[in-house]
Every structure is written in C-alpha cells, then in structure tokens.
Queue: 2 jobs
Job 1
Amino acid sequence: MGTDRRSGFLRDSWIGATTLKKKHNMTIDWNDIDTVLLDMDGTILDRHFDDHFWLEHVPKRWSERNHSTLEYAKTHLYGLFHSQENTLNWTDLDYWSDRLKLDIPVLKQEVEHLIAVHPHVIEFLLFLKQNGTAIWLVTNAHSKTLELKMRTTRIGPYFDGIISAHQVGLPKEDLRFWGKLQNFISYEPARTLLGEDSEANLETARHFGIRYLIYISCYSSRVTPRRSEHFTTIDYFNTLIPIKGNRCVTIP
Ligand SMILES: [Mg+2]
C-alpha cells in the first residue's frame, strides 16, 4: 500500500487538535552530514495518490464487487485498515489483495496518473549529489508499490539505493527498525538526516539517535500544511539548500 495514507486522516486531526506551537529551530551544516535517508510517500511523492487510493478508490471498487453502499464499504474497510496499522501488512499489497479479494496492484494502475513528485525534490537530490552525500530511499512501501512508483516518476536513479521495510522485516514505526537498517546501509546516526512525513517514524529514529530529523508538512497537495509540535518542520526540500557559496542553512 501507499505507506502513510490511512493513518493520515487519523493523525491530521491529532496534529490539528493543539494550537500551542513550539519552535524546533535547526541549523544544518552540510559538512556534518554524510547520509540522507528519505521516506517515499508523502515525503518525496504526493500522498494524495495514496490517500485517494485507499480512502476512495478501493472502497468504491470493493462496494461494486460486494453490492454494498459506498458508505458501508468505507466504514468496513477503514476498520480493517486501522486494525493493521504499524504492521508490515499495512503496506503489503498481496495481503490486501487476498483480504479484500481485489487485485490491488491493478487498481493502483487505474489511478496512477495521480502519482507525482513533490515540488523542489529533484532540486534537493541534485544538491545532495553535488555535495557528495549518500542518498537512500527508505520506505515501508511494498515492492509492487515501489515498482509502480519508480516506473511512473523515474526518480530511482537519483538514489544510491532503495530499502523497503519488507526487506528489513520490520516497519519504520518499530523501535528496532533503524538499528536493523544498518545491516543494509552503513550510516552513522550522528551524521545522518532523515526526511519523513510520519512523526511516528521520526520518533523511532530519534530514539535510535539519528541526529537531523525533518518533518515534511506539505505531504499532500490537497492538505493545508501544519507544523509539527515535536520536530523541525519544512514545507518543501528547497528550504534545506544553502544559498550559493554557503554550507549552512537555518530552519526557523
Ligand atoms: Mg510517508
């Protein structure tokens, strides 16, 4: 599945519930960072695709197949989705194809025109390349989702490598994930930056000791961005690119 979509509609209300805004300023000196880990859905790609797919398109197709109302399908499926949150099943297309008796990869292709790279992502990846920083895509997404998204966006070659949580055997929400990731990527937590649209994943990364944690507030082209109460927040990745001749940026 898309990675964070279904938690989004639960999480957004939680983020919006508080009006007290704490500041999480951060100064980044790119001399101090060797590795950048980037999440996929919502972070570099528009999560509107995933939200629309799981919250609208799948219930629509499920209701047609089961001769139910769309309202019933949504209530029933949202409950099923919720039951698998924070597990690898959440993003496992084979699991959902089997559980819902629908061909989920084919349904994804029906709405693949909604897959899009967020603004300023390519600019940021080119900056990192120029800087000599290692760039890894680290996602909870299933291999079939990855294949579709890499084919439609052609963004894969910008990365030194792509790691799916399904290879690691744990979702990023699991505290053990970031340590286990070191079996796949050699990285030093104190010299690593992680970009995520999931505060839960940033929290497990903080627990492991990843030093530079960035929350992406514009995770979907259809939502009004809100700052994180807990992490340094950017709307778009161009905020992390220093002006020419500089190596440092300060994020307000
Ligand atoms: Mg995400």
Job 2
Amino acid sequence: MINDVLDFIYPRYCFGCRNVLLSDEKKLCLTCRLNLPRTRFGGRATNPMFRFLRSQHAIQFASASFFFEKNGCTQQVLHALKYHHQPQLGILMGTLMAQELEGIRKYDEVTWIPVPIHPQKRRIRGYNQSELLARGLCRELGGKVLGSALNCMAQSQSQTHKHRSERWTSNQSRFGIEHATDLIGQQVIIVDDVFTTGATISGLLNVMSELELDSLGCVTFGYTIY
Ligand SMILES: [Zn+2]
C-alpha cells in the first residue's frame, strides 16, 4: 500500500522501455524481461562467440546471454548501468544472465572474474559494471567473485617492482593479474558487459591462458551482431 502511494507520487520507470513500473516490478518491467533478445547460445560449442574465441585461445566455454540491439532494451539498460549509477540494475542483469546459463555446466567451483575498467572510470562511475554482473551470476549460480584479480593499466606502466608471479602481464595486453599464483588450478570465467569485436576479452584471455588454470571461459551480457 505504502509502495503504491510512493509510486503514485514518485513514479519509477523501466530502464528498458521508460514506461512506468508497477509496484511489484523492479528496474525492468515484465514485458521487457520477457522480450529480452535472448541469444540462446547456452553452452553450445557452435555459438559464434565461442567459435571466434576458440580459434585464438585455449578456452573451454564462452557464451553471451542477449543480443545487443542499438536503441533497443539491451542498449538502454547497459547505458543506465554505465552512466546513471544503478548498481542494483547491474546485479539484476547478472541474475538475468544466470537464467540463460543455468544447467549447462556446474558453477560451484567457478571463480568469476570481472573485466576491470580503468581506475579513473571506476571512480567516476562508482563501480565496475562487470563486477556487478559477476555478483548477480554468483548469487544465482554459485562459485565466488574475485573482483580484484585483474587490473587495468596504461601499457607503459612499470612492472619491474613486482615479481612475475605476482603481477603477470602480456605485451599485447593492457591488463595485469594480481596474485596470479592464487588462480592456479581454478575454474575461471571472465565476465564482461558486452562482446563487440572481442578485442578486450581476447587481450585478457591472452594473459590468463599463461596461467595453469583448470579451465578458462567467458560470459557477457550482450553480444553485438555486425
Ligand atoms: Zn520495460
């Protein structure tokens, strides 16, 4: 009742379609949730993202949950997540991703590692959006989130002050791994918001594949079709 009154005074809007939300709807209206453009990639080895990445990296798993549509719902929610300070929306998006990934493998032992963003961007945004997606995935599917495993740096940054096992970088990548030895033997799944050219994830997979992991994979919320 009190929520109905509050909704009347301060209407809440769906981040997907901008229609007014009903009192029992959160962040996304039911229509948007039902109509999200599902890729149905699941864990299929034939999905285009897996095929593309597997041609370059030794990975066991890759999937994206929704097609990224220009001016569509997925673009709207990603925009809100990145630029309108909506951390709860990020967690929700992670749980929606989880629904698409459920049952295709076991996740109890998975270490979810979000793609890092530049520290300056993180300061402005207030969070790393991929970390929120990872938290939503972890909440629904299990495993653990290692938000600080990777860092994003300028390529020229000096790496000489740390031992190689502590900070592992590749010349082709702007990413570094903190405490790399802790990841040995782990089932790692990289989490990113959207797969476009694959350059970001490829850079990370380059670095990660040098570690002795049990398995390596990646998931994204959106997938862009060219
Ligand atoms: Zn909507």
